[in-house]
Design a protein that fits this description.
The structure holds two protein chains of two kinds. Chain A is α/β, with parallel strands linked by helices. Chain A contains nine helices and nine strands. In chain A, the strands form two sheets. Chain A has a five-stranded parallel sheet with strand order 7-6-5-8-9, covered by helices on one side. Chain A is globular, with a radius of gyration of 19 Å. By secondary structure, chain B is mostly beta strands. Chain B folds into two domains: 82 residues, Alpha-Beta Plaits (2-Layer Sandwich); 52 residues, SH3 type barrels, CATH 2.30.30.20. Chain B is built from two helices and eleven strands. The chains are: A alpha/beta, B mainly beta.
């Protein structure tokens, strides 16, 4: 994986994913390893994403690396009309690795083709966010002690949610059973169902999940955004059906954990936060370890 | 010759290429994919000709023009049944069908307005994926979204 950009989760094989997760586990046990000492990493955020940026920068700082970059395009050369190509070519001179978030889909792949240093995609529009997927996988493996043969519930906006699509594809390596729970308007797109059929994996779609929640090993909650609905009345009607409350977790599996890519709005009631099933805040911490693993293996330091 | 049924009202050429069995609705896309508007020799078109297979088809006859396989195969996305006849001295010397390429570069626009190729000066690359027996789908190398060749816009 040395010098190889990470743009899409599909760039990594099953073995490469598992190797990265093992490395992240090692960083969790020994977080103070100054392997990035003397390295400069650019975090280029063409649109703001506080959480992802801080997670990367925390990982870089803990490993002794230096960070340069910008947090939004305002005040950067991009605002003066510089092309993405020129920005990337220039910044390549200043650093050993680029971490990039950009509102346009495909921007990260393009950046990796013009950059002279490796690029990590920290989100390109609605397309991919592979480091999020890696931390989701890490969280699943950590809580279940395996990735194989799990029953994964994905709940909420399954149509536009890029974290859902990437996680679905990555989990296809591990004989996963999928349960998709969403309102009619936000169902999982046809192309992903085709993908699962090709891989001979079981999936079901549901409008409601209260009756089947007892089968779940992992519930992956996502936020339903009002602007995704063509009819605002439909949003008002459906928003509460996809809200997880503590009383719903009563007769569930012992090993069940609830994940969420965050930020949460109201789809997980706050009374779930201190239940033994809630895992979403630890999940965010896992992001630091997985990003440590990804950056140090791309730079050939691990 | 079987190809010269009387209902085809397009005159014969001496030497060159005949492209037959183009779906009539895609004639102008084929013209722009093959850059025919820059050709100086004689070209005749026929369109909205009745066809058992396609409903309505178009035909293009190009005098003194021959195509490389990689160029002509680009039209397979929208005219998968197109047939090529190479003409020498009014006789068909070679017949062949177009073949769908694995990858197409720089001819079609990505259908996703939020794709980098529609916002920066980036050449498009698509992977051609089988959709079903008859049809293909185009997956953008950059944004990974699918464009249907039926809706594809040609540069």
């Amino acid at each position: 994986m040395k010098n190889k950009s990470l743009i899409s989760i599909n760039d990594y094989s099953k073995e490469q994913i598992l190797r990265t997760l093992d490395l992240a586990e090692d960083f969790e046990k020994n977080p103070s390893q100054p392997v990035l000492q003397g390295k400069v990493i650019a975090t280029l955020f063409f649109e703001p994403s506080t959480r992802t940026k801080m997670s990367f920068e925390s990982a870089i700082n803990r490993l002794g690396g230096q960070v340069i970059g910008f947090a939004s395009k305002e005040g950067s050369s991009v605002q003066k009309g510089e092309s993405l190509k020129d920005t990337i070519k220039t910044v390549s001179n200043y650093c050993d690795l680029i971490v990039m978030r950009h509102p346009l889909e495909g921007s990260a792949r393009y950046a990796s083709e013009v950059a002279s240093v490796p690029v990590i995609n920290a989100g390109d529009g609605a397309n991919q966010h592979p480091t999020q997927t890696m931390l989701d996988l890490y969280s699943i493996r950590k809580t279940q002690e395996t990735l194989e043969n799990l029953n994964l519930f994905m709940v909420g906006d399954l149509k536009y949610g890029r974290t859902v699509h990437s996680l679905l594809m990555a989990m296809s390596y591990f004989n996963t059973t999928y349960n998709f729970v969403s309102p009619e308007e936000l169902r999982i797109p046809e192309e992903y169902k085709m993908f699962l059929k090709e891989h001979k994996l079981k999936y079901k779609e549901h409008i409601d999940f209260t009756d089947i929640i007892s089968e779940a090993d992992i519930i992956y909650m996502t936020r339903i955004q009002r602007e995704r609905f063509s009819d605002p009345m439909e949003y008002e009607k459906t928003k509460n059906s996809y809200m997880l409350r503590r009383d719903m977790l009563k007769d569930t599996k012992e090993n069940l954990k609830v994940l969420h890519p965050l930020p949460r709005i109201n789809e997980i009631n706050e009374d779930v936060d201190d239940s033994k099933q809630s895992y979403y805040f630890t999940q965010a911490l896992n992001g630091v370890y997985t990003r440590m693993a990804i950056m140090s293996s791309i730079l050939g330091l691990k | 010759m079987a190809d010269n049924k009387p209902k085809l009202q397009v005159s014969a050429i001496k030497n060159g290429t005949v492209i037959d069995h183009i779906p009539a609705r895609h004639l102008f896309k084929v013209i722009s994919i093959l850059n025919l508007d820059h050709i100086k020799t004689q070209i005749t078109f026929g369109t909205n000709l009745e066809s058992k297979k396609l409903g309505y088809k178009a035909i293009i006859k190009l005098s003194e023009v021959y195509f490389k396989d990689e160029d002509i195969n680009k039209i397979a996305l929208i005219a998968p049944h197109a047939k090529l006849n190479i003409i020498k001295d009014f006789n068909v010397t070679t017949k062949r069908q177009v073949e769908v390429p694995d990858q197409i570069k720089g001819i079609a626009k990505c259908g996703n307005p939020n794709c980098i190729t529609n916002n920066d000066n980036v050449n498009t690359i698509f992977y051609v994926l089988p959709k079903d027996k008859e049809k293909v789908a185009l997956k953008c190398h950059y944004c990974e979204k699918i464009t249907d060749p039926e809706d594809m816009e040609v540069f």
